[in-house]
Amino acid sequence: MIILPQQKPSSLARLEVITPRLMKHSPVYQDVRNRYLREKSGYDGERSLNYYFNFLPQSAIYLHGLRVEERQYTFQIDHLILFPNLFLIIEVKNNAGLIKYNTETGVLKCIKRDGTYEHYGDPFIQARIQRFKLKKLLEPSGFNVPPIHTLVVFSHQDAVLEIEGHQPDLIISQRLPWRVSELEQKYSTPIFSRDEVLKIGKMLKNKHKPKEENIIEECNIKREHIRAGVWCTNCKKFMMKRTNRNWECPSCKHKDRNAHLKALEEYRLMFGKTIKNSEAREFLQVPIHVAKRLLKKTSSSYAGETKAREYTLS
Ligand SMILES: [Zn+2]
Fold first, then answer.
1. Is 143 contained in some domain?
2. Do 232 and 202 have their domain in common?
3. How far does residue 174's CA lie from ligand 1's centre (Å)?
4. How many Å lie between the centroid of ligand 1 and the Cα of residue 53?
């Protein structure tokens, strides 16, 4: 039972909107594009595990992308699965190539096809910290904390693992159902009833706080480097023109009366939920009276008068 479904991280949703609009001559263009590609591949990797979750017990409680910000503890778990006998943390890695792990040194080395390589810290140290924080979060609620086990799963289809020593918890996605079934047998004594597991799951879900990131500020993006306009809602390659109270694509000739709604949603993701007439005029590339009319129809509320009036995009 999924009680916290997977959600696209807000940073990725913002990068998806910003990257195609960012001018190529912007000094931060390459950094922003790289971050977008990195976050997209991470998210795709996490999602790719959903297929294998179908082979796991459906009676377990699933929380995807749980993020808790509590007292001194902030932690994020890619996937958390609650069984009556064990809690399972799944940490997803999306590296491709040959992945070498040494159980003695804890060094993780990823060698790409072109021969270049990168070293990473021991993923089990991070896992141990997550386990500690989760334990600390559960303890005050009076629940017996069950065994918390961590699996580090490499989700990329081109990942080949080479482990020096014995480490059954560093696996590729395909191994997931088998490893989970082994763990269920290992921890065979139920600690909770299903109702109790559900209760803990709901408590954790209530503590979930998605990370909100202001990409424009973080990446130091200048507003003048963001391309204005209403993307064609059909071909998505050109900006539409406003004619006769309608939007039309100069290339594919597609017409869409509501194309500005998508553009204003993109504006909200990039710059926040308030917008002035002058900003809408510039962004939608329309005369001021058109901007005013569209904002009045679209926004949920407004505050202030005349030029300073700010509309709220919901
Ligand atoms: Zn078009």
1. yes
2. no
3. 41
4. 39
Q: Which tokens hold the place of 112?
A: 């790409």
Ligand 1 centroid – CA 15 distance (Å): 22
Residue 214 belongs to some domain of the structure = no
C-alpha 230 to ligand 1 mean position (Å):
11
Q: Are the beta carbons of 8 and 211 closer than 8 angstroms?
A: no
Q: Which residue has the tokens 């050109």?
A: 238
Cβ(153)–Cβ(95) under 8 Å? no
- Segment 14-72, tens digit of pLDDT: 999 999 999 999 999 999 999 999 999 999 988 999 999 999 999 999 999 999 998 77
Read off the pLDDT band of 309 (50, 70, 90).
confident
| CATH number for position 159 | 3.40.91
Ligand 1 center from residue 265 Cα (angstroms)? 19
Count of residues making up the chain: 314
Give residue-wise pLDDT tens across range 13-25. Answer: 999 999 999 999 9
* CA–CA gap between residue 168 and residue 188 (Å, rounded): 18
β partners of residue 70: 73
pLDDT band at residue 144 using 50, 70 and 90 as cut-offs: confident
Q: Which tokens sit at 54?
A: 């179908």
CA of 240 to the centre of ligand 1 (A): 7
Q: Which domain holds residue 119?
A: 2-206
Query: According to the 3-state scheme, what is the secondary structure of 140-175?
Result: HHCCCCCCEEEEEEECCCCEEEEEECCCCCEEEHHH
Q: From ligand 1's centre to the CA of 233, what distance in Å?
A: 7
The answer to whether residues 181 and 52 belong to one domain is yes
Query: If you measure from the C-alpha of residue 251 to the centroid of ligand 1, how many angstroms do you get, rounded to a whole number?
Result: 5
- Ligand 1 centre from 249 Cα, in Å? 5
Ligand 1: distance of its center to the CA of 255 in Å?
9
